[in-house]
Write a structure and sequence with these properties.
Oligomer: single chain
Helix content: 25-40%
Radius of gyration: 27 Å
Distance between the termini: 42 Å
Shape: globular
Number of strands: 21
């Protein structure tokens, strides 16, 4: 279980190779200093930073991002090093935060190489500080410990380095800022030069967030034995981030198998249509020598050129990404579409910003001379500047439209080919549904889109089993601010959403419907009997939404109301987690009690924290931390504002969950290119009985023949 530290508290480390994960409310710079017993630095070579990311035993990211991973091998450190301090600083000149107090408190987690959480510290109480020593790993009597420090500096990075005894603090701080600026330029490429009839996309890179919830792939050892850290762009992609998004988003997402940074398809020399295909997708058969040794088939490769339209442009093919199975190829293809859309929109936004800046500069120059402010000369200069601005924006939009047309065509062939786990509820695949025989690799949690193209929706896929719990926000902030993208989304949703923001009762109803839709999908995509749902509903207000689960037998009965019902469910699931943990630890699965349900469990908690006392809260946090590893997953339907009376005790719980909304909302952040993806919940079409029909067929499959 991950230990939660407060400022000044320490905790022993039971291993010497660890990963330090940083999550902040905006882009931050991460670095590490290697100090002696008093914490003093021997020189600039004792600092690992974006300009010099690798020191002996340490590797840090090269860019500023909202999420980071730092690799640490304590055994490889020089004998003179007794303190390893993790530094966080706000970058200047990137348009981000200027003080840590203006965003959510950053959190630092020390994990094993397998991702097992060891220690977590949330740095609270920061205000005007722009740099902070987050945690330090220190050596005592040949053993290593971690201490929560949280020492902030209002004067920024130079003051922090100077406080650690570095004479060249100002020079090194300037070097770090310069390196971060170069890294930012790499992370969001400038728009490529435009030519007639052609657009070029920026370089590849991992997507965000949402897909915020997407777990990062296990890193391979580097040449020196260290686990390579994710860069600022890559780390943000994991989670997810959340996802992004998630899905996490996340909302961060994994790059499709085989993709490499900068590995773009060649642009046509004649200025014709560009090759829309994602760099990581298979376009030619793999040579026999490169075939994998695994007996599993790699799947049929596409032809060297693929099908073509009458004009010669390549046509999309469902499942043209790399992968062992069709599901994996479709999964990688969806993430390729996500990355393509993120890059194309980032290039368009960058070009539009450049055109706006250039217009302002040319107008300033034209009006600098008082003689040009009046008369035909001034009018001509202003007209010329505006014409240049319009031309640049038109060219950028034309390039974006070409990319969007290709992605839309790909979506039109991919969406109908998706398996049930990836498909929308209105996909015809559900009409021929039958209970699967194998567990799925991923789950669709909803759709993602950007305001530049409201009609193109990318599935938000998260890998299974869920490593993070879900939080469906029924609070008033879940609806977000009004805007054109919300108007489009509202037209697709039922009821009061078409008339404006829903009231509290409507939000709670929609939130529970979204929870049931996700639960029904999880039940349907697992083999019969291998997934179960339990519900806590102290007030008994969720009965209408739970009706499909109860009527199909997926939920044996409506939940017991009151504190007694809360305690009964939590006690049962806590017992299951503890018993399975012991069985796994001692390799004694046969010793589990016969009455223990070993199916994976989803716990839906409605109207949280109503009906919870301190003991119930402790058990719920235990399930959130320990449950996913042994098949117990958590979904809260709650308004966070109603939990304020508990103070900060629930903050770690909220931060560990992937936030979803029952109505479209642009809340899944993408730290790679800075997009805010609009998430739409996976609701069935209004009036559709597809969820009940699927649950009925699943119930029939569970009955003994």
């Amino acid at each position: 279980m991950t230990a939660e530290l407060v400022r000044g508290q320490n905790h022993p480390l039971d291993r010497t190779r660890v990963e330090i994960r940083v999550a902040a409310g905006g882009p931050v710079v991460a670095g590490v200093t290697l100090g002696d017993e008093q914490g003093r630095l021997s020189g600039v070579e004792a600092v690992a930073h974006p300009g010099a990311p690798r020191r002996t035993g340490i590797e840090v990211p090269r860019q500023a991002a909202a999420e980071h991973r730092i690799a640490v091998d304590l055994d490889a450190l020089p004998a003179a090093v007794h303190r390893v301090s993790v530094l966080l600083a706000l970058p200047s000149g990137i348009g981000g935060l200027t003080a840590f107090g203006a965003a959510a408190a950053p959190a630092v987690t020390v994990t094993g190489l397998d991702g097992t959480g060891l220690v977590r510290y949330t740095i609270t109480g920061l205000g005007a500080e722009s740099a902070v020593v987050a945690v330090e790993l220190y050596r005592r009597q040949d053993a290593w410990k971690v201490r929560a420090v949280g020492q902030g500096y209002a004067d920024g990075l130079p003051a922090m380095l100077r406080d650690q005894g570095l004479p060249q603090a100002a020079e090194l701080a300037a070097e770090i800022e310069e390196a971060v600026g170069r890294g930012q330029a790499r992370a969001v490429p400038a728009p490529a030069p435009m030519t007639a009839g052609r657009s070029e996309r920026p370089g590849t890179g991992p997507a965000a967030a949402p897909a915020p919830d997407q777990p990062s792939p296990a890193p391979a050892p580097a040449a020196d034995g260290l686990t390579p850290s994710a860069t600022g762009a890559g780390a943000g992609a994991a989670s997810g981030t959340g996802a992004a998004a998630g899905p996490g988003t996340g909302v961060g997402a994994k790059s499709p198998a085989g993709s490499k940074a900068g590995d773009l398809p060649p642009a046509p020399a004649d200025g014709g249509p560009i090759d829309y295909r994602h760099p990581g997708r298979r376009s030619t058969p793999a040579p026999a020598a490169a075939a994998p040794s695994s007996p599993r088939p790699a799947g049929p490769p596409t032809s060297a050129t693929g099908p073509s339209a009458p004009d010669g442009s390549p046509q999309p093919v469902a499942g043209d990404a790399a992968g062992w199975s069709m599901d994996e190829r479709l999964y990688n293809q969806v993430w390729g579409m996500f990355e393509d859309l993120a890059r194309s929109v980032a290039a368009y936004r960058s070009a539009a910003d450049f055109a706006e800046t250039r217009l302002e500069q040319e107008l300033d120059r034209a009006l600098a001379d008082p003689r040009n402010r009046l008369g035909t000369a001034g009018d001509a200069a202003r007209a010329t500047a505006r014409d240049k601005h319009a031309t640049l924006v038109t060219q950028a939009r034309a390039a974006l439209d070409r990319d969007l047309a290709q992605l839309t065509a790909e979506s039109e062939v991919v969406e109908p080919a998706l398996p049930p786990a990836f498909a929308r509820w209105d996909n015809p695949v559900w009409q021929g549904y039958h209970a699967p025989l194998e567990r799925p690799m991923a789950l669709r949690l909803g759709d993602l889109h950007l305001p530049e193209v409201l009609d193109l929706r990318i599935p938000m896929l998260v890998r299974l089993p869920l490593e993070r719990g879900l939080w469906i926000d029924c609070g008033p902030d879940s609806y977000g601010r009004p805007g054109p993208e919300r108007d489009i989304g509202r037209r697709e949703l039922p009821g009061a959403l078409t008339d404006g923001a829903p009231d509290e009762a409507e939000r709670r109803r929609l939130s529970m419907e979204a929870a049931v839709a996700i639960a029904a999908r999880l039940l349907a995509i697992h083999p019969a009997g291998e997934f179960a749902v339990q519900v806590i509903d102290p007030a008994g207000a969720a009965a209408p939404a739970l009706a499909p689960l109860v009527e199909s037998g997926a939920l044996p009965a409506y939940p017991l109301p009151g504190a007694k019902g809360v305690a009964a469910v939590l006690e049962e699931l806590t017992r299951r987690v503890e018993l399975v943990q012991m069985a796994v630890r001692h390799r004694a699965a046969d010793a589990l009690p016969a009455d223990l349900d070993t199916a994976e469990q989803l716990l839906i908690v409605h109207d949280f924290p109503h009906g919870f006392d301190d003991r119930a809260l402790t058990r719920l946090r235990y399930l959130a931390d320990e449950g996913p590893a042994v098949g117990v997953h958590l979904m809260l339907v709650a308004d966070r504002a109603q939990s304020r009376e508990y103070g900060p005790v629930l903050d770690p719980l909220w931060r560990s969950l992937l936030r979803l909304t029952p109505v479209p909302d642009a809340h899944l952040a993408d730290p790679w290119v800075g997009h805010a993806w609009t998430y739409e919940p996976p609701l069935a079409p209004s009036g559709s009985q597809v969820v009940r029909q699927v649950l009925g067929r699943l119930a029939a499959a569970r009955r003994p023949s």
